[in-house]
Fold this protein.
Amino acid sequence: MTLPMGRPMREIFGETVAELANEDPRIVVLDGDLGSSTRADIFERAHPDRYLQMGIAEQNMLGVAAGLATMGFMPFISTFVSFALIRPLDQVRVLIAQTGLNVKITAGYAGLFTGMAGKTHQIVDDVSIARAMPGIVVVSPADDVEAAQVLRWSATYDGPVYVRLVRDATQRLFDDGYRFEFGRAVLLREGRDVTLISTGSQTPRVVDAAGILAGAGIDAHVVHLPTIKPVDVEAIVAAAERTGRVITVEEHTIIGGLGGAVAETLSEHRPTRLHRVGLPDIYTESGPNDALLDLYGLSAVRVAEQVTQALERMG
Amino acid sequence: MSDPLPASVPHAVASAGPAIDTAEIARLEEIARRIRVEIVRTVNHARGGHLGGPLSVTDILTALYFRILRVRPDDPGWPDRDRLVLSKGHSSIALYGAMALRGYFPVEELATFDAVHSRLQGHPDMCLLPGLDMSTGSLGMGISAGVGMALGARLAGRDCRTFVVLGDGECQEGSVWEAAMVGARYGLANLVAIVDHNKLQQYGWPGDTPEHRLPPEAPGELLAKWTAFGWRVLEVDGHAMGELVRTLEEATRGEGRPTVVIAHTVKGRGVSFMEDRYYWHTRLLKPEEFAQAMAELGEPAPAVEGGPT
């Protein structure tokens, strides 16, 4: 049995920020000419006066956001990760992270799902990069329900936030009763044999993998880390203590992202056998979503395979 | 001193308001002189920092802080204040000198420039020094922040103006032109950019001799570019205080689009051996050079201040 599909996070973005802006006059959305893709167009229709087209000029867009923030506005940046974080990285660093200004980098098209755009648009090193930058927090919601709550939370947080959003519909993990808590891990399944830690829309696939593993007699403990910075040290250590073996799974490079954060945490606080599942040190290629997940070992079936193999090696 | 305004470039301030009276010009020139003294003294004391750029931008910052800007140094967070962004953040010591003399902080605090725990960082840090409207230092960014401030002022219905001071070398950064494009798109009449056009950058392209480096832009290039990007362009001698003030006042009239003032300046202005010499961008003064510089600025200093202890 697999988790059902939810709605695309990009639609949730447009709708949620538009709703937030009904009550919060500080909110403006800055678009880098991709509103019809990122669904900033939903916000534009609701609040045309607070939709600010910045054109295909993303370095300037991040700087304008900083200037708007000094005037009391709360800018939400809407474009692809590649253009919201990577291309204007120095603007993010100097004008937003170093100043602590109240800018929300709510970037779409994180990970592999880019409408088959390929490696220029598939950003799988953003968590490592954002995580290393002082002054900015990093949140990667699992599904549409959590994405809406993360966006709502971000408007209550005074400072720079990087939110990783996914283009396409992904599996729904949470019901409406779920409540996102910044900085807190979420225990999704209790198990004894191995701890699986995941983030973002990879987490529903890990939950499905745990179901497959259960059928093979492997009882996985599953933890979701929506907040990658600051990381929930206590929860990671507790989960490691419970099973003695930890496997991280992420739709991202295994260097410096979730796997890196967990490795650092455990090495320092409770050395534990660890294996990282994710993208090796490569650039990815274009293809249909399911084919990519299979190719890069991130589908539920392929995750279950890798966990089984890793456990054999770990002993 | 060399004439900063090339003969081929017309003064473009025909419609400016009444001339500034001579006593007011003299007042501003004396303030500028004192800022230059503080620049040379402070950089010499810190044994590091920029000289050429701060000395070229001094008159511009003097005109802004002491004549143009609507600010309250005793209430630096006043929401309706005019904003100033020093996009060429490496000229921070000129900004600090102007702010100190304007009353934002004691002049004595300039001695902490570049030291640890100082509010006067090598490049301006808005988190440390009240009255600083934006952190800068990585070139080409301040103009974007200025566009955001001007846009925010309009959205919030505030009457304040935003001034951004750029270097001419900085105008090589592509992001400057992204900001120029967007500023014109939004018709930001409440935005004024001032280019400190001193015709030199840190090192520059090689010229005819080892001493000579080519200017960051060809003559007329900045005028053509800003014009092409839809900005109203004014040009002025950036050291002629009366004309400078009148031009900046004219610049705030807006006319439905942002205005850029191309201020023709001399790098190292006020110290004869620094003027128009690229290598005084950052260079340590020898004791005798320090003494000569202070004497030329009308403030002879004891020779013992010239060197490290």
Notes: Residues 186-314 of chain A form a domain with the Rossmann fold fold (CATH 3.40.50.920). The CA atoms of residues 143 and 172 of chain A lie 5 Å apart.
